[in-house]
Amino acid sequence: MYDTDLTVEQWAELRPLLPVPGWLEGRGGRPEGYCHRQMLDAVFYVLDNGIKWRAMPVDFPAWDRVYAFFRRWREAGLVAEFHDRLRGKVREAVGREAEPSAAVIDSQSVKADAVVGAGSRGFDGGKKKAGTGVVVLVVRLSSFIRVRRAVRAAAR
Questions:
Q1: Which residues contact 125 (CB under 8 A, 6 or more apart)?
Q2: Which of 13, 126, 134, 140 is the most exposed place for a label (fewest CB within 10 A)?
Q3: What is the chain's Cα-based Rg?
Q4: Tens digits of per-residue pLDDT, 2-19?
Q5: 19, 153, 5, 12: which is closest to 84 by C-alpha?
Q6: Over the stretch 99-129, which tens digit does the pLDDT of each residue have?
Q7: Quick one: what percent of the chain has pLDDT higher than 70?
Q8: Which 3 state secondary structure label does DSSP give 10?
Q9: DSSP 8-state code for residue 113
């Protein structure tokens, strides 16, 4: 067991927030080979430790299955949906509305080295800095609504 593994109480809170697999609702498809809790534990381990997918310990499901699970959820928008549901639950727990009524937008220029491809690098004219930008939308309780990478216009 790792410190990033979900406790029984955490899993009880998260499980109802997860999307229901299509095969359970009669929409077709085949059952998944691994429990969602195992997959989430593996994803949390990768995120917490900042390791490569291939460097996951062997007591998690195979790294390529975990990555495929994460990628499939991300591309289908399920990671964002899960995050939004969880944020709403946290807000309700402290007596707020599930959906925020206001947010703060912030941006940051991130310097990029010359070896970074030109397609993902631009120029921030205000700061006179070559690189890329990150735009963050945040609400109270320091919860993110969205994080976007913004490529600045190329220097001329």
A1: 153
A2: 126
A3: 19
A4: 999 999 998 998 888 777
A5: 19
A6: 877 777 766 666 666 555 656 566 566 656 6
A7: 66
A8: helix
A9: -
